[in-house]
Amino acid sequence: MRSIFVVAVVAFCSSVLSLRADPPAPGHSVHGEVFNEGPRQAAYLMGGTGDVSFPITAGNSDAQAFFNQGVGQLHGFWYFEAERSFRQVAMFDHNCAMAYWGMAYANIENRSRAAKFIVKAVEKKGAASRREQLFIDALAEYLKPEQDDKRKDDERRKAYIVGLEKVLLEFPDDIEAKAFLTVFLYQSKSNGVPITSYFAVDALLSEIYRANPTHPAHHFRIHLWDDKDDKKALESAARCGQTAPKIAHMWHMPGHTYSGLKRWADAAWQQEASGRTDHAHMRHDQVLPDQIHNYAHNQEWLVRNLIYLGRSHAALDLSKNLLELPRHPKFNSLTKGSSKFGRERLLQVIETFEMWNEAVALAPTMYLEPTEVLAEQSKRLRLLGIAHHQRGEFPAVEENIKQLEAISAKLEEKAQADATEEEKKATEAKKSEADIAKARDEKLKKSRESIQPVEKALAELRGVLLLARGETDNAREQFEKADIPKLRMAKYQFLCGQHDKCIESLTAAVKSAENEVVPLAVQVDLLRRMNKLDDAKSAFARLRDVASQADLDSPLLARLAPFAKEQGLPDDWRNPTPPKTDVGDRPSLDSLGPFRWSPTAAPDWKLPSPGDKTLALADYRGKPVIVIFYLGAGCLHCVEQLQKFAPRLNDFQQAGISIVAISSEDLPSLTTSLVTFSKETPFPIPLAADPERSVFRAYRAFDDFEKSPLHGTFLIDAAGLIRWQDISFEPFQDVDFLLLESKRLLTH
Fold first, then answer.
1. Is the pLDDT of residue 242 over 80?
2. What pLDDT digit, counting tens, does each position of 551-581 carry?
3. Which of 266, 442, 605, 728 would you label with 618, given CA atoms 20 to 30 Å apart?
4. Read out DSSP for 175-187?
């Protein structure tokens, strides 16, 4: 098998080398730019990616197996892994036109990149079957380069639908053509091609299920009826994850159905299953969490459902975990990915469950520390002000107000500067005085929009201070300016003595939050405190039915314990939820993967170093180290990277972090290049030689398809675990980011 694989590598590279006229830069693909961003490590047969049979013209059974896997991954929207599978098909049979069709389809949402793949499919389709040619022609027509295609998007989409129907006209029993048609009909409804009959599309899906009850197209029925009539997708929701259990998104999607039906426990189960499946994949393939599409969204949605269930501990822990994950400029920061969602959900959990002590305790930590993102900072200060008020720490509330006022002033200054710049542009354009004034005023109004949330936060905090002083009338005026959610407003209305308005707000909040624990719990608490005991008992009866998973020791629910005791109820007053019979055969969650992401162990290594020395990972045991994989002195970008890190070595060492670099050169070449690095002073970073690229391979800093090394930068902690990584066709050069991120990760 290995000899066949090597021959296939040579044939594959020679067949596509024509895509690039000049030799590529080190780390870049010999196939051309289109192959730089995609998967660079070999695929493997995962199992559990869908019961799919898509016969193609291929040289051997391995190519067919990987093609079927790729199609299953497409059906699960796991596009990155699908492209990997299709690249593997091309490795086995470089003349397989459908391998390139698959690569194109895996990038269907990236038209320019997909178009470069489909060109190769068209070139090679002569050896393909009539059925395959129809698939290729349809996608090629859809992916025509924009400069050659004057059609509107809806016209292109309608033409592709017709192209898929051509497949079915000649091959009416082709369930894969039906699957791709149904999903494209759904995907096109928000792009100018409305679905004229949902039942017609559903009937087409039913034909797939009759032919293959375990086909992963159950995913598409969920999308079809999502927000339309979720009940019609219940059967598919019970089967979706089970049809492709290795694809996390297939477990996630039934969560849409159950959330739409307000079945929060079932939705949370699906999202936890999805997260666990992702974690298993991350550990197996050494992938950072936010490199996986949909991961952060799934986890933050899981937090929301945990909130609805009253599971305060799990919601808090998972929100904090999202903030503990490795950050990366491309994938995860306070403005995108897990960190953004983690901060949003953490604020929500603390406010919802009245965790005021936790808010104050977390304020100086990585979880709730101040940030440079002013919009996020205003939310943080608003929450902390509420927390300090609840704890009776009024000077701290005043300090939060001062900080918000400073943010407001800063934003006003920026708004004025924006308006002045707009005025200058209008003047230079020689517009009339009226138009100049209009341009300035419109820009000022637009720029001031960012101040509004800050002013609303200020109004609420000023209101709580007035409330604490007993100035309820003035407090009410501030609260009315503050755009406060109904449930929180009900609490203020109660404290201000506005009991009738409080009951109205409670009723509205509960009505808009069907089957959610916290709104009912607040309603019970406030009705009881207003001496509306019959109404409180009625609300409590409803609460008992939805709170089967709620944590009774959260501050809010703990306040209800005396009320439960007055009614002769046990300490655990929750009513158990009868088991559901329409959720399918669910596996144990532990069998899918771990609950949380955790770093993997760094592969051990020992390599020669200039001066008859050796370097080994064991040399750094007990202390963190940055390991840089670079492609020799002939790689100019690698030299730039080392030249950026070398002057900062002292900064890393002061943080207790060492740096070592591993070259793809042999030892004599490395020794020669070290002289180049050390023209004036000795090069400060220890260097090791890995000419066999065995360590490059162990760390996946290697292109298995082209048998060439890739750039890699890794943070390995004192326990020998990989805490952060970057593997790419380009070296990572943001030294400031890596230093700060290393400190953040290592202090957690």
1. yes
2. 999 999 999 999 999 999 999 999 999 888 9
3. 728
4. HHHHHHHHHHHHH
